[in-house]
Amino acid sequence: MFQSSMAMLTSIGVLASNVSAFAAAGNGRAAQADVRADQGVLMSEAEAAELLNAMVPLFRIRPVIEDSCRFGGSWESLHAPNGKGWAQFHMVTRGSCVVERPGLGPQRLEAGDILLLPHGDSHLVRSEVKGAAGRVSTGVRNGVRQRATVDAAADTELLCGRFLFETSDENPLIAALPDEIVLRTAGEPLLERFRRLLLDIREELDVGRAGSEMVAADLARALFVMMLRDHLTERASANGTLSLLQDRTTARVVLAILGDLARDWTLDEMAEVAIASRATLVRAFQKRASVAPMTFLSDLRLAVARKRLAGTSDPIAKIAAEIGYASESALSKAIMRRYGVRPGALREPGQHAPVVNFDTSSPNSRS
């Protein structure tokens, strides 16, 4: 375990860089970059590594490995919405299950699938077999809760936990993440790598050696980055910000914006960062996300503003200054145009998306 932990920490050391390093990488002629952007070629592994080098410093993550589950027959596990800054994940190591989220249809997960909910939304994980849920026993071993069905032999196993984004309020990249990321890793060596890394994190937290907390945090960050890397390099159908991060030209701009959202960006400055002409940059954004670069910037700012308003008590003027609006009035007008309400209304519970109120007193539930 220790050797694999050290190997992963070495990888973290290689990954740790900054946004400017990625933006400056590959300083070839702009004309060559234009040709590449117009072709819409996905990033190579080396280019994906450059992207990750830029993304890693934007995250500070603390892990919580919570449940090792062995279920059979009819079962369900209810998960209430998490607090601000928490992301949840479920890794199916054997069998299959179904995940239901408020307002969405059921989604089947099977062995090798990993579900990440970056915003910690409420959800239900259940068996494919419907019926009255059986009894579930609960114990603790090595600091991790062990959950198992009592009346049926286990045919499904999951490893579940959470990440705490320690800078969620100030991090626009977290706000830009989709509501869910699903990785299908069946038949790939990636699953074993994820499993080994999760065990390394759990061991570090359980043993409590000097520096364990720092090692576990770096391993958790590595796990999260590995998931993003796989999503970016293998899932060409990604939409929105993640789709833009799949292309070298648009990724340079997105990361530069995320690194300095308060900057008074112009299209010329974006093109300079992208090492491309303005026309090529516009085409690349349209191809990847069906949006113009300046519209993407505006959408991102408003998405971050809405999340900050709903999840914090920060003054509107402070939020406006930190995401690139000249004044509180300018942000208020932009929110009114987009959402049809004043900023204060976004702080009210009635303006939030409905969530399922799970009964966390049940032995089959977790908050």
Give an account of the 3D structure.
This protein is an alpha+beta fold. The chain has a domain at 61-165 and 179-235: Jelly Rolls. Helices cover 44% and strands 19% of the residues. The chain has 14 helices and 12 strands. The strands form 2 sheets. A 7-stranded mixed beta sheet has the order 8-9-1-10-3-6-11, covered by helices on one side. The chain has a 5-stranded mixed beta sheet with strand order 5-4-7-2-12, with no helix packed on it. Helix 9 crosses helix 10 (267-274). It is globular, with a radius of gyration of 22 Å.
Silhouette: globular
What's the SSE pattern?
HHHHEEEEEEEEEEHEHHHHHHHHHE
Low-confidence stretches: 1-41, 350-367
Q: Briefly note the structural class of the backbone.
A: alpha+beta
Mean of all residue-level pLDDT scores: 76
At CATH level 3, the topology of one domain is Jelly Rolls
Q: What is the correct CATH architecture of one domain? A: Sandwich
CA-based gyration radius: 22 Å
In spatial order, strands of the major sheet run 8-9-1-10-3-6-11
Q: How many DSSP-defined strands?
A: 12
Q: Indicate the percent of residues in helices.
A: 40-55%
**So what's the CATH class of one domain?**
Mainly Beta
Measured distance between first and last alpha carbons: 30 Å
Determine the number of helices (DSSP H or I, runs of at least 4 residues): 14
What fraction strand? 15-25%
The CATH superfamily of one domain is identified as: Jelly Rolls
Q: Biggest sheet: strands, sense, closure?
A: 7 strands, mixed
